[in-house]
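Appendix B: a complete holo record

For completeness, this appendix reproduces one full record from the ligand-bound portion of the collection. The bound molecule is zinc ion. The inputs are the chain sequence and the ligand SMILES; the output is the full three-dimensional arrangement of the complex, encoded as structure tokens. No fields have been trimmed.
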Amino acid sequence: MGEDESGAARIGSAPKRPNVERLRSELDDYMSRQQLRSTEQRRLIIDTFFESQEHMTIDDLLAVVRRSDAKIGYATVYRTMKMLAAGGIAHEHRFGDGFTRYELADDDAHHDHLICEDCGGIEEFEEPLIEELQERIAERYGFTVRDHKHELYGQCRECRMKANAGNNKG
Ligand SMILES: [Zn+2]
Ligand SMILES: [Zn+2]
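The structure of the chain with zinc ion bound, as generated:
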């Protein structure tokens, strides 16, 4: 079962996990259509990304893949992730801290994000009401929604508790 080594606890009902097998075969199709070569380093980066359940930066991925192959360079990881994004396999997020983060792109497992500005923690949430509401708004404007992002910025529960504990001491 999933070993949750990171401290990023998921609060509430966790969104559906992406369908890894379907994304894998979409990636194979994309790579053969684009005649992209599957090198050993590329495979390692892709496997690592598919196994990670986090919002990984290039540096995060690089640190993990280098445990298996110390010769992998930043540019290779960067280009591989750009390829995954171009193929619709990965979503790129910029959550305002200057880093680009990647996660598996699965529209059936759609979720949105709560971003803590104090610790940088990223929480995922799923809310059918928001999805429904935006469809209604789009309809009102004769607009067809292709994609959307809801990013809520603020302070997470842990940071608020820490802040409160600090205040009580003083
Ligand atoms: Zn926080
Ligand atoms: Zn996410």
